[in-house]
Amino acid sequence: MILVKYKSIEIKWLSIGTYIYICRALFSTGLIFITDYFTLNWWELLHLKIQAKNYYMNFNQESDISSFELKVGIIFIVVAITLFLSKKKYERWYKNKYPKNLIAIKHQGLQPINFPDFNKKIAQHDFRDLTIHPFEINDIEFDANSDYQKALTNQKKIVQEINRIKNSNMNHELAYFGISRIPLSFGLGLMLSDTQAIHVFDYNRSGQKWNQLSHSWLKNRISRNTKFSIKESGVINAASNDMLITVSVSFNVNIKDCTDVLPHYYKSYELALPNINYGERDRLKTINQLNRLAEQFRSLLDMITTKRNINRIHLFYAGPNSLSFKLGTIYSEAIHPKIIVYNYNRNHTPCYSWALDVENFKIIDFRK
Fold first, then answer.
1. Is 80 in contact with 20 (CB distance < 8 Å)?
2. Can you give the residue ranges of every domain in the chain?
C-alpha cells in the first residue's frame, strides 16, 4: 500500500496476513520448480512447440535448464521457510510500527462464554496485527436476579472505559461477541454506534464456538436476495401516536403477545425472514445479510419519521444478538422517534415482561 502524506510518499509494509500468503506462495512456487525437475521440463517443451521442431526428448535426463529449476526451487523453499520462522518477530515489529487497536467486547447474560483465541484466525477475519483490548460485560448475575437496571448501570460504566480507549487512539476497530438479552444488546449498540469498524459474531451453541458473519465475496453474492418481507397493518387506533414493529429472524413474533403489553397503537409493521414459522437459529451467514436487513430497518424508521407524528416506536425482536446490536448502532435518537425495546420470556406473564426505554435508559417492568 502506498500512503500519500502531504508531499511525501510512504510505503507501508506488508500486513501479517499478506506476509503469510507470500510465504505460502514462495513455498508453493519452489515446490513446483523442484517437482518439474524430476518430471517433464515444461519450459523446454514450450520452447520446442514454439519452434515447431520434432526431436526426441529424454524426460529424465538432466539439462542445464532443469538443473537451474532445481536450484531456483530450493532457493524459493529456503526463503519461504526462513520468512515463516521469522513471522513472530515480524508480527512484533509490525504492531510497534503500525499500532492498531481491537476493542473486543464479550457480552454474556444467558450463559458463560469465552473469548476466541486472538492468536489464530477467527472465522473469516485475522486480528493478529491488532493490539487486543478485551472487555467483559457480564449480565449473568443481574439476569438471575432480574435486576436489569443494574445491568444497564454496569454496561454504562464499561462503555466509559471503552470510550477512553477509543479517544486515546483513533485507529481502532470493534468486535462484538454477544449472547445476552435483546434490549441490552440493542442499547449497547446504540452507545457504541460511532465506532469506526464493527465485526459481529454469533455464538453457535451446539458447536460452542463463535461464528463470524462471513466477508467472503462468493457467500455474499449467493445470499444477496435475503431480505425482510414487510407487512403493514391498517390503522388500529387513529388516536394513538405509538407504532408497533415486530422483527422475526430466528422465530416468529406473535403479535398477540405484543398486544398484551401494548393494546393501543396506531398501526404495525411486521418484518420477517422467509419460512420463519418453523424457527431456525443461526440464519444469518454473511455480513451483507446483516447490513441489508439493518438497512431495511433503518429505511422503515426513516419512513415512519416523515409519515406521521409518531411519538414512540415499540420494537419486538426475535433473532440473534448480532443483528439486535447492529440495529442499535443505526438507530438515531436525534432523528427517529423514541423507541422501547421489549424482552421475551415464555415463562413470564406477560411473555414480554420487561423492556428498555432507550431515551431514558430505564427498565420498564410489565410483570403482574
1. no
2. 2-92, 98-212, 224-365
